[in-house]
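To: structure subgroup
Subject: Chain for Friday's discussion

All,

I'm putting the inputs and outputs inline so they're searchable in the archive.
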Amino acid sequence: MTPELCIITGPTATGKTRLAIALAQKLNGEIISADSMQIYRGMDIGTAKPSLTEMDGVPHHMLDVADPWEDYSVACYVEEATAVIIDVLSRGKRPFVVGGTGLYIDSLVSGRHFAAGDPRVREELSARYDAEGGRALIKELEAFDPESAARLHPSDKKRVIRAIEVHRVSGLTMTEHNRRTQTAPPRYRAKKLALNYENRADLYAAIDARVDGMLESGLLAEVSGLLARGISPKATAMQAIGYKELVGHLEDEASLEESVAHIKQESRRYAKRQLSWLRRDEDLRWLLWEKSPSFANALPISTEFFRSFDIIGSEPARDEKGS
């Protein structure tokens, strides 16, 4: 039987982690993060990574699994998170996948498999792209994968290189790989809860308050410390909202006030993109906050929502009064 997952998602600053911890305590669960920036070690404040105190004894997985100088892909996430979920289920626990990175969640739940790559081939192709231009590589791609060549724009360096790399490493065209992936059965059956605010203004107010809290907690010092460790400002991890803007401030490109305003603006834009992604999913159940989150009201509702989704071999923890 297809294994089952409990998903808690939603845009940034909606209380996903807090609700998930309470649910995991009531339903014998463990949490698997689905946040593309919480995977990085040393990036705690700006990613809203839960502290040990906030975890309150609930095991958390897929935090701090990569260094900030690494390029960590969705393929890596799916492979590592799948291994974690197998372990959680084998111990009779209920896996809660929690986070706002929709691509991570969808790729994990679906049957999508990722073609093997080779960094050396990628580097060679990247150098050729820079020297010869995208059109030259598109012409090469046309010889063995005309569909991908017609679909991709020469300026899309990453995908053009990837299409050639996949063929070189696996012998499969990207077109054939995508066809096989689309027909694969899902890895998991998922029950999904999405958090949001009824009014967008309240969501934006929560985002602004979170950014202010991060600055008060030392986000600027965290960013400065990463640069002092030799992390390149161009590293993928340093493109995260909050880090990129403060790097600009530290390099005298903007005042602190301007950088903070930019962080808030980019965070609001990110929340809009998250919502656009989530609204495509008709299987989501939405839990909407009014002016502010009411976890006391949400916990019994969400507990019943997930309790009916039985995990084979797992007995939910017995509810206790006041818990």
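Points worth raising on Friday:
Residues 312-323 have pLDDT under 50 and may be disordered.
The two ends are 32 Å apart (CA to CA).

D.
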